[in-house]
Please model this.
Amino acid sequence: MTESPLLLVDVDGVLNPLGGALPGFEVHECVVDGQTYRVQLNPGHGAALLALAADTGAELVWATTWEREANWWIGPPLGLPELPVVEVPGPALPGGGGEMFKTPHVAAYVKGRPFVWLDDHTWEPDEEYLRDHPGVGDFLLVHVSPRLGLTDADLEQARDWLKALDRRP
Model:
């Protein structure tokens, strides 16, 4: 494998669980385009994602509607450096095959690199779209529970898959 794999990370439902307050999470207020958002973030997630990327040689990338704003509002409280971003322009409408609106943008971004995508809105239509899309290589969709956010089990699933890439012919 010549290029490092990608580790695509969503924010809402993954790093910012959508349920009630959870232990270990801190509430932060973010102002984007004049709108104030309250997010709950677990500072341990940043270290866990950085360790996963370092351990597997993966490149961390934002795959979120927060886009570049994630580098200013989400990354710093988690201790993450500025990350590349999958741009998701236009309205958030589902795709023609039932895939999530972000899926075609992810397909265009990866350019054949293997990737793990941590998101709470990926389902079978997203997997089918990616599997059938030219230029998309090996991938793993990790469906994160939006009520719990990113868990150790989600991270281990990603780690196991990324580590297995090293053993493929």
Summary: The chain is about 30% helix and 20% strand. The two ends are 9 Å apart (CA to CA). The chain has a mean pLDDT of 92.
